Amino acid sequence: MKGATLVALAATIGNFLQGWDNATIAGAMVYINKDMNLATSVQGLVVAMSLIGATVITTCSGPISDWLGRRPMLILASVMYFLSGLIMLWSPNVYVLCLARLLDGFGAGLAVTLVPVYISETAPPEIRGQLNTLPQFLGSGGMFLSYCMVFTMSLSDAPSWRAMLGVLSIPSLVYLLFTVFYLPESPRWLVSKGRMDEAKKVLQMLCGREDVTDEMALLVEGLDIGGEKTLEDLLVTLEEHETLETVDGDGQMRLLGTHENQSYIARPVTDQQQSSLGLRSRHGSLANQSGIHKDPIVGLFDSLHEKMPEAGGNTKSGIFPNFGSMFSTNADVPHMKPAHWEKDVESQFNKDHDDYATDDNAPDDDSDNDLRSPLMSRQATSTDKDVIPHPTGGSTLSMRRHSTLNGENSMGIGGGWHMGYRYDNGEYKRYYLKEDGAESRRGSIVSLPCGHDGGSYVHASALVSRSVLGPKSVHGSDVAPPTGPLWSALLEPGVKRALVVGVGIQILQQFSGINGVLYYTPQILERAGVDILLSSFGLSSISASFLISGLTTLLMLPAIVVAMRLMDVSGRRALLLWTIPVLIVSLVALFISELVQISKVVNAALSTVCVVLYICFFVMGYGPIPNILCSEIFPTRVRGLCIAICAMVFWICDIIVTYSLPVLLSSIGLVGVFSIYAAVCVISWVFVYLKVPETKGMPLEVITDYFAFGAQASAPSKDDT
């Protein structure tokens, strides 16, 4: 995971620059006004130009990133930052300064919109939340360092606001070098354009290993949007366990893995087995939630995480502990393939995928850009040399170590998920499988009650849909979807449901009060006597205010570190559900301290504690999680487009909140403002509880498929009502 971590750190420099600039302009405006004697409206315009630029660029950044790629847009962001820094350093008048601020907004808008997307598309599921918290951490770190710089420069006799703003060009140049010479293109975007060989090389760099067959198959399947999906409860065993027999007319079936010779036996769980063994059904989890008005999708995702082994760290699959995987490769029989795999796949793959989606930049050769090449390896890798004995017999099975993002001794597509294929009626069906973690099974492997010895099975939940990979269907329709952003895909039930979650949480986050609390923090600390304490050290009021602001941002950093640790353990939904109540209590206590005067010391202490708690718990949950969720819940081919919609809503709400705050303070006062913020936080908690699912440890493609299935499964009940 080292490669993915370093890539995420390099990409997040863009958020560092945004935080740096936000703090710098707040300090520099004091000296800009003194130098140019600007009217109040013009001062607001100088600050607002960055927000305007971010809002404008966001409207087109998503579709363009889906067209040109994520990396070119990050390069453009670094160029915008660099140019804006140089122009601000020169700025002979306010008009040039406004132009520079506009360019700076372009860079900030691109970074805030696309960095979370880029990290989500390059990070393994087990640490995706942790890495996607880095933008919040580096953004706050940039603010702190910027306030330190502004404070230091304010101690001089003649502080230069041009120098304050122009320093931005130095870290921007570093970011430009990283984006040009180090950051790779997103492998998911490359796959969406048919550039399979490039995607494979990027995955090998990110994963630190040669065999990325599972990941390549997953990324290709991620091109699917919508389609009919079903949820099945299966009993799964290794192919060698052919003692599985038909029970009550339910027949067994062979599922093919992503590697050659990789297969296992599965069959549906009967009602009798469901009852006698205490196995859970995901269908029941989906249906039961509708009675309490929680979105069925939320209940479906919750059922996937109940009593599951943690996905983070070095997680060895519990399905067959001696192997680390439910999948097996028979090293002694290199050419043993199911008959239909040899007959139907080998003979039709070349014919049916000649016209698979590629772009103009794709090489003309037929090497790795053929889907078959990276997905169905025909040569054994060096890792196939590691063999261990089969626990039930004398056969020897190969164990592919380091073959997934899960960890050292496991396989699959990440987060404990696995993928298999079934050839049925002229087309392939894709199976996303997750081992059920119910305690009633007393472990992962249980004896199969079929009247014979040695039979073992695993209860797994499977989301089944038509595969992107197989040959053309019997109806002659092309399985491979077209490339490029599809506006019509926004009408797919799963995408619409994801947009409700993404747009809703962005709106509620902006109106939850963080801007008001940060605006009010200097006044709170002044009441607590911090300004008097600092003045005793000979600091001017301006320098003291910069130092207070720096201390405020410093408080965020330890809280964000805690959030990074918990993001992939407790999960996004859980963090929101227990941090938002703290925000509500803090806001209520703040307006009570304004209404009830106990004593100057007590009120100041209470207000200070409330502000600190609010800021710390906000950056632990509501700060980073909306962007993380938005980067996870949309399909690959429309991810940029959907992210642009969510980001545009974010920036518009940011402008509304920023410029309505002074009006609200003058009309209803602090008590009224904090009352509104507290009410919005209550609404936020209800929205998260009812609408926001838990996505920790799940591959992006699995998340979007479950959104599609949940929306599809809940549609009939909505029509009935």
From TrEMBL:
Q: What membrane topology does the annotation report for this chain?
A: Multi-pass membrane protein
- Report if keyword Transport is assigned: yes
Q: Where is this region: Disordered?
A: 351-401
Q: Name one GO biological process term.
A: transmembrane transport
Pfam families named among the record's database cross-references: Sugar_tr (PF00083)
> Cross-referenced InterPro entries, in alphabetical order?
MFS_dom, MFS_sugar_transport-like, MFS_trans_sf, Myo-inositol_Transporter, Sugar/inositol_transpt, Sugar_transporter_CS
Q: Where is the signal peptide?
A: none
The entry's cellular-component GO terms read: membrane
Record's keyword annotation contains Nucleotide-binding? no
User: Could you tell me where the Acidic residues compositional bias lies?
Assistant: 357-368
Localization in the cell:
Membrane
Q: Which residues cross the membrane?
A: 43-61, 73-90, 102-119, 131-155, 161-183, 541-563, 575-592, 604-629, 641-661, 667-690
Occurrences of domain Major facilitator superfamily (MFS) profile (ranges): 7-696
Residues annotated as coiled-coil are none
**What are the recorded GO MF terms, alphabetically?**
transmembrane transporter activity
UniProt keyword terms in alphabetical order: Membrane, Transmembrane, Transmembrane helix, Transport
Query: What SUPFAM superfamilies does this protein's entry cite?
Result: MFS general substrate transporter
Q: Give the domain of life.
A: Eukaryota
What protein family does this chain belong to? Belongs to the major facilitator superfamily. Sugar transporter (TC 2.A.1.1) family.
Q: What is this protein called?
A: Major facilitator superfamily (MFS) profile domain-containing protein
> Source species, please?
Brassica campestris
Traced from the root, the source organism's taxonomic lineage reads: Eukaryota, Viridiplantae, Streptophyta, Embryophyta, Tracheophyta
